[in-house]
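Thread: Newbie trying to understand structure tokens

Hi all, I'm a second-year student working on a class project, and my supervisor (Dr. K.) asked me to get a predicted structure for one chain before our next meeting. I've only ever worked with sequences, so writing a 3D structure as a token string is new to me. If someone could post the tokens and maybe explain what I'm looking at, I'd be very grateful. Here's the chain:
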Amino acid sequence: MRHSIVLFAAAALASLSACATDRAQRDADKLALYNAHAGAPVNKFRYFGSINGWTPLGAEAIAVWTRPNEAYLLDLTGPCPEIEFTPAITITNTFGQVSVPFDKVIVYSRSAVNVPCHIARIRPLDIKAIKQAERTARSAVQASGT
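---
Reply by user tm_fold:
Sure, no problem. This is what the structure looks like when written as tokens:
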């Protein structure tokens, strides 16, 4: 009995490790895509009181939509704990502007402490180009039959 529990635990751990590796690779691929379609750094962007959506891109970057067709790539000053797994974030702002280096992404942690992550760089994203690149990649995968 003990032997089968150890085998089950080892299999479960291997499965979790594979999932984490797959997620890290997806995040790295998505970050590369977003970096390829990010504009020159800007010091600030207008913030309309709430974000329209966001995507974690590993532990040190996120994409934030302020409107359906307006998004920014936010590079953080270092690894931001739990940003890849949190259900919610907020962004600090001053008078409707999110600015480098004053504002932060606040991660609503599962623990009682919300984690502030400082913004190192803001770059506008070309949403149309990103969507086109994603469509092209999907078409290539479908054409190859994988």
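A couple of things are worth pointing out once you decode it. The CA atoms of residues 56 and 62 lie 4 Å apart. The radius of gyration is 18 Å. Feel free to ask follow-ups in this thread.
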